[in-house]
Q: What sequence folds into this?
């Protein structure tokens, strides 16, 4: 009851005209930045940080929260419409969301994403209000061995699910891991795969890889097939801007499962919302395979609903982890931690005692931001979908331009533009020959986490590999991984038998 009374006081502070204005402004800015390829909520917060020192802390952080959540909405919009996610957290939404868009269901896809983000964010904000004191206990359960097991599970599960050929999935994963290890090793100082180029000493940016693989590669692929596949997107942009009862019934379980998957990752420093979005997509794809008529690969609404709910529930919980523990789970949370320190504030348990007005007004603004973003995005889903009415040559030329501008804005280096072009060409070849891009992105995102966790675990055990299976959590993860591998092998055997039966010649009866 004490939490409810404090939250009520927080709403009283957050709903003042000026603070409400900062919430709306933050949501609009976050959404606007999120729709630009290569940019996202982390860059928006970083750019706004010096501009907000004239504001009092409560107003500044309320606006930051709106930017944080708004950036996720904007990322999803471009991921669905243009197959161009602004951040890695929106990658999983491209797989089925973009297929829905090009199949004439863009407004429904945007509505699915908006509602999923709203549900995930509201549930996470509710959990933060009531469970902030217990966040520390949950976050201390995971150690280096558990992180490595989790990354290994994501590697193998994704590689075996998203591709018809497991070998192609593993090849894509290895490519992603190879890109992730480029640069100078932080522990030994050794150059790895830099070819002597100083520009590669700091590694290859995840933003560059994401934009090249998912945006520029798509542009190249569409351009290569413009004569063979003259699809007229003008006839595909129309549609009702709401979900039917059947679609709501289809998406509701996925929203619930995605939210449940994303919540724990908000207090586990596993790289932000990338891991839970991919896991949520994986769960829905496996459930879909049990159907008589699988929908995945054709624009399955569950394949979009689950990652959107998972990403926003993780984001909401990560804000709680930042406030209650001082633990930044994502890049944006790390920037906000720096902002707290600029104001002379230290997030953690003492923040609730020393600055309760700021904390509870900020928590209340999470709920307000979710409602504002739903009001901004849901009614305008059909308007956003009209981006598909732009002729292809103008549309994809514009995407290419924004890809280059986004990458150059993040680094200011011409070399990164050359990397963008080279990786985009590789992504085109992957699409051309049927190699999935999801394992590549998983390898790129989780590769550093897996490497660091493995090293930390072995250093703490003086080289004893048994530490990797020394806890019940690792047993559970590896047991689940064994089940996934067993099902993949069983599926391959059954598919082979079916293929053999279909290819077996039939004997014609003698006349």
A:
């Amino acid at each position: 009851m004490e939490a409810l009374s404090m939250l009520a006081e927080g709403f009283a502070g957050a709903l003042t005209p000026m603070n409400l204005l900062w919430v709306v402004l933050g949501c609009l800015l976050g959404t606007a930045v999120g729709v630009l390829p290569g940019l996202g909520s982390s860059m928006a917060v970083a750019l706004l940080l010096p501009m907000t020192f004239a504001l009092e802390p409560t107003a500044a952080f309320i606006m930051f929260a709106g930017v944080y959540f708004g950036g996720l909405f904007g990322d999803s919009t471009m991921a669905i419409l243009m197959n161009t996610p602004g951040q890695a957290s929106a990658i999983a939404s491209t797989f089925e969301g973009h297929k829905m868009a090009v199949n004439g269901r863009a407004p429904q896809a945007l509505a699915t994403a908006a509602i999923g983000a709203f549900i995930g964010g509201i549930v996470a904000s509710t959990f933060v209000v009531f469970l902030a004191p217990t966040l520390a206990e949950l976050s201390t359960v995971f150690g280096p061995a558990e992180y490595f097991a989790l990354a290994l599970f994501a590697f193998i599960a994704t590689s075996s699910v998203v591709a018809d050929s497991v070998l192609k999935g593993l090849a894509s994963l290895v490519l992603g891991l190879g890109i992730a290890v480029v640069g100078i090793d932080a522990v030994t100082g050794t150059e790895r795969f830099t070819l002597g180029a100083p520009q590669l000493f700091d590694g290859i940016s995840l933003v560059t890889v994401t934009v090249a693989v998912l945006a520029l590669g798509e542009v190249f692929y569409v351009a290569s097939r413009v004569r063979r596949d003259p699809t007229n997107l003008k006839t595909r942009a129309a549609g009702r801007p709401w979900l039917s009862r059947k679609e709501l019934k289809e998406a509701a379980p996925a929203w619930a499962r995605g939210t449940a998957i994303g919540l724990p990752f908000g207090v586990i420093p596993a790289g932000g919302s990338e891991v839970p979005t991919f896991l949520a997509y994986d769960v829905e794809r496996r459930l879909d395979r049990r159907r008589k008529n699988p929908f995945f690969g054709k624009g399955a609404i569950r394949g979009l609903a689950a990652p959107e709910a998972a990403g926003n529930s993780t984001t909401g919980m990560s804000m709680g982890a930042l406030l209650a523990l001082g633990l930044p789970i994502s890049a944006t949370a790390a920037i906000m931690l720096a902002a707290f320190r600029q104001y002379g504030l230290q997030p953690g348990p003492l923040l609730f005692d020393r600055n309760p007005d700021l904390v509870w007004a900020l928590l209340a603004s999470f709920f307000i931001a979710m409602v504002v973003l739903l009001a901004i995005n849901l009614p305008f889903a059909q308007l956003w979908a009209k981006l598909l009415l732009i002729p292809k040559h103008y549309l994809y030329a514009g995407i290419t331009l924004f890809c280059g501008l986004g990458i150059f804005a993040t680094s200011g280096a011409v070399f990164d533009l050359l990397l963008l072009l080279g990786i985009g060409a590789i992504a085109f070849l992957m699409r051309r020959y049927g190699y999935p891009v999801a394992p590549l992105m998983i390898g790129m995102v989780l590769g550093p986490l897996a490497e660091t966790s493995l090293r930390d675990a072995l250093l703490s055990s003086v080289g004893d590999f048994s530490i990797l299976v020394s806890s019940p959590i690792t047993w559970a993860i590896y047991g689940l991984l064994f089940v996934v591998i067993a099902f993949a092998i069983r599926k391959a055997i059954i598919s082979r038998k079916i293929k053999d039966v279909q290819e077996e010649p039939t004997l014609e009866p003698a006349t």
User: Anything to note?
Assistant: The CA atoms of residues 102 and 231 lie 9 Å apart. The chain is about 70% helix and 0% strand. Strands lie at 183-184, 191-192.
